[in-house]
Design a protein that fits this description.
- The chain is mainly α and about 130 residues long.
- It has one domain.
- The chain contains seven helices and no strands.
- Helix 2 (about 25-40) packs across helix 3 (about 50-60) and helix 5 packs across helix 6.
- The mean pLDDT is about 80.
Length: about 130
């Protein structure tokens, strides 16, 4: 925070809040917001799959213009698996779906098997 330690954190936050950040959102936050948009466009209905709305939101992103979209399209296999796993578990509250999907997605990326690498290459979105 700007001004610390000469200025308290509240005053610093108050002064800095009107300023716009020049940095882009990080990949995880960007993906989280994309999943939230897909869920809100889908509604809270658990009967319909969330894979298609998330895929549609990703397809709207121009390939090659945003590194975040490129990375998620490359790892579509892992995201699709995360969406299906969390959607099928039906033990989560609807408001926590986005958080659970992101956590499962990162878990899938971290624990890749040789088979996953093969499927990952086959299912990349263009």
């Amino acid at each position: 925070m700007a001004g610390l330690p000469d200025m308290g954190w509240r005053q610093s936050a108050k002064r800095c809040s009107p300023l716009k950040s020049q940095f882009e959102e990080g990949q995880t936050w960007w993906l989280f917001k994309l999943i939230c948009r897909a869920i809100s466009s889908q509604g809270i209905s658990r009967e319909l799959s969330l894979v298609q709305p998330v895929n549609s939101q990703l397809e709207k992103q121009k390939y090659g213009t945003d590194y975040r979209a490129v990375e998620v399209k490359k790892n579509w296999y892992h995201l699709r698996r995360a969406i299906e796993t969390i959607s099928n578990s039906r033990t989560h509250h609807p408001s926590s779906l986005s958080y659970r999907i992101i956590a499962e997605y990162h878990n899938n990326l971290r624990l890749r098997s040789p088979e996953d690498l093969l499927f990952e290459e086959e299912e990349q979105l263009k």
